[in-house]
User: Which sequence fits this backbone?
């Protein structure tokens, strides 16, 4: 019997489980954005940090009065344009901001497919980095090379562990969410292996 893949397992989670998993993945992506801001003086990473904090609050306290539309309006101007930056860091920054907007839209529309997409965006960020590294070493970055790369293997393992954590976490409380956040960041690095200070 073949073990179900990560995306299959995510699809089997309930709405709230999908949402907290997506928020945990965003915790791993956000420092990529912060580093990009520091390097380029573009954008305000505090706006994205604040939006993610409010998302967590909304997940724990669904009745809390958080204006999600306003958060979308605040995050949108902080999405960088690829053409404006001649550096790889723009890609993870765009992915982070895009994933965060997807999360907000998912909550606004109660559309859990947006939460599922965040795991795909996170994996795509890792794939882009691997492709970038392999190509710069003149190695063909085909699907197999990307899939077998240690960074991608690690991303898939980490996702699997987070899914398992969410499957077993029971009620979504501030305590269970704290434990999930800790789990997401316990290795001290972002989804593309950058150390989180």
Assistant:
């Amino acid at each position: 019997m073949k073990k179900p893949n990560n995306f299959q397992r995510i699809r089997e989670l309930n709405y709230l489980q999908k949402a907290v998993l997506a928020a945990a993945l965003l915790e791993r992506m956000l420092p990529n954005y912060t580093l990009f801001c520091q390097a380029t003086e573009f954008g305000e990473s505090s706006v994205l940090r604040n939006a993610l904090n409010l998302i967590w609050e909304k997940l724990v306290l669904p009745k809390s009065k958080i204006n999600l539309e306003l958060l979308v309006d605040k995050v949108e101007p902080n999405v960088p344009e690829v053409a404006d930056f001649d550096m790889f860091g723009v890609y993870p920054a765009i992915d982070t901001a895009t994933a965060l907007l997807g999360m907000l839209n998912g909550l606004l529309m109660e559309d859990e497919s947006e939460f599922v997409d965040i795991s795909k965006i996170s994996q795509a960020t890792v794939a882009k980095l691997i492709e970038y590294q392999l190509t710069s070493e003149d190695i063909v970055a085909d699907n197999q090379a990307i899939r077998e790369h240690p960074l991608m293997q690690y991303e898939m393992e980490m996702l699997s562990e987070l899914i398992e954590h969410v499957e077993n976490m029971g009620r979504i409380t501030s305590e269970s969410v704290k434990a999930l956040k800790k789990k997401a960041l316990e290795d001290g690095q972002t989804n593309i292996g950058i150390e989180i200070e």
Remarks:
- The radius of gyration is 16 Å.
- The longest helix spans residues 15-40.
- The chain has a mean pLDDT of 95.
- The chain is about 70% helix and 0% strand.
